[in-house]
Amino acid sequence: MSSKVLSNSSSLMNEYTYKILNNLSLKVKITRNDFQISPTALFQMAARINKKRSFLFVSKVLGKHLPVNPITSILASSLLASKYMKEILHIEDEQFTLKRNGFLESITQFGSNIEIKPYKLPQSTIFIGFAETATALGHGVFDNFQNAFFFHTTREKIENKESIIHFEEEHSHATSHYCYIERNQIENQNPIVFIDDELTTGNTILNIIHAIQSEFPRKSYTVLTLLDWRNEESIDQFRRLESNMGIEIHVVSLISGEIEVDCKDEKMKKETYQHQSDKFGKIVPIDLSDINTSTSPYYHNSSASNYLWQTGRFGLYSSENEEFTHYIHSIAQKLVPFRSGGKTLCLGNGELMYLPMKIAALMGKEVYFQSTTRSPIFVSRNEDYLIQSKYTFPSPEDYSIQNYFYQIEPHLYSEVFVFFERELVEGNMSPLLSQLASLFQYVYVVTLSTRKDDVIHANGPQ
């Protein structure tokens, strides 16, 4: 059983074969890689526990299933922004070399944060990140621009807010997406840019375009993605939609290519990892009551507090970025004194990725970031397989949903800061916190929103 690269072409170094499990392998042929970024810098492979899709490109830059240097994630978004400027706006990004070199260096070492000057877009543009995996990637792309508006789709059903766009993601374990912005924020002809981590069929993109065109029609869309693996049949589906709807769909990726899956009809072997510990670390809530937090007026009955405004779930304008930056700096300054000096993990929760990722990037060297997820990945202790450890718990926001985190071994880190968007019932957090306490000497609980009220946040200038 193995998830490492077994072979690649000796001439162009653009063909790779991954043996994921004994009965599952994948061939990858890179057809376009303009920025000359090695695929090994972007992803590895694992088996997915999902009847609809047996494999998973496990990103090494998203901070979802694998721990990453948060600066790597932020600069991966910046490279997508550079590609958008070059291919869609036909503008050379003056900061491209800084971004690319910083990205490559961050993979192997912790350096200083790189200050990116946002580019002012000639036309107000809407950036949309996809839950759950690409909420941070989308927000990170948006951060590279002025004259921009951002929101991310969500899997959460909110009690007192209507979703104006609803669509499905068929291959996912949680298929429904909702969009909780105001109608006037999309009822216009501003360009729309979707950001997702990977396209395999592209069906999710087609589904949201159908949903938007039915209510808020426009002439063109752009898709930004780290990886584009669509085959000719999937690309033809895009062409047919363009023809049928009289629209244009532009797809921009860091790497594009073709994949070929070889999956023998065998039952997946039983997972071999099981963590047990009789030692438990200390769980310490951190008080952020002295930090000014912008809460939304929206809530779910599972929580005693409202959703945060700064996540982008309800929309953010680039004019709000200065306030956002001040907010994350304030939290980072509050958390740094709790570090013991060794390796530290900041753990986001579900869709809450970009805020803790940006905070982690401000907390000094040897601070890693990753997030909990709904995605069930096959785990094995075989030394050649990627995902070696897996922890399961009910979602603190919804006990009916199973969540996971991966690739954490006992004593690997000095401490963990686990982030929650909203104040939750203490018992709902216990399964996750107990798992973490069996792995870390200190578990610091960072709850960002602790208010429940009806004050409506003034959502920036339009």
From TrEMBL:
It comes from Heyndrickxia shackletonii. Residues 310-436 form the TRSP domain. CDD domains: PRTases_typeI (cd06223). This is Adenine/guanine phosphoribosyltransferase. Residues 42-258 form the Orotate phosphoribosyltransferase-like domain. SUPFAM superfamilies: PRTase-like (SSF53271).
